[in-house]
Predict the structure.
Amino acid sequence: MRRTRLVHRILGLLLLLPMIGWVVTGFAFFIKPGYGSAYELLEVRRYALDGFRLSRPAPDWIEVRLLRTTLGDHLLARTDSGWMHLDPVTRQPLRLPDEASIRRLVEDAIVERHARYGEVEFVTGDNGDNRPSATIRTSSGVEINLEWNTLQLQQSGPDTRRIDALYRIHYLQWTGIASVDRLLGLAGLVALLVLTVLGMRLALFARG
């Protein structure tokens, strides 16, 4: 029984830091402070498609979206190979536009959310053949990613990164190396289980 107490004490000390992390992060997950802004959905502003008609879709199109933004009309078509961003008239692929056009598109999306996003500071684009995209940084520290083939925006601010860090702490993802973090998580669960079993043994069978 003395050995049981010793092992129980050692495991308790080893799990002290993770357990404090679990309590603090669990409380944060319970009250969810700032979650609404941190993970809010950001979309490009759309305008009415007055007077526009889409001709017969191509036979390999699975899904079609037609929308109008501050940059004009966009035809988004999905095939077995993924999404394509096409010119609605010529049906030729539309390449990622220049920095000024991307800036105008994003500024139109965030115009009513100045308190969170501030002003667009700089834009970097990657006009790759498969998934052209752009990264936009704002004066408030928010990073916005534009997926050009789907015209989707994803935003991540300092609050988003803080909450993501809490999740990494909670799930013992401390190193950033997936294989090592999995071992840490497994070791933490095993140690917690052993600690619980030993505690029950001490409570039920220890002599006064």
Summary: The chain has two domains: 2-36+162-205, 45-150. Residues 2-36+162-205 form one domain. The mean pLDDT is 87.
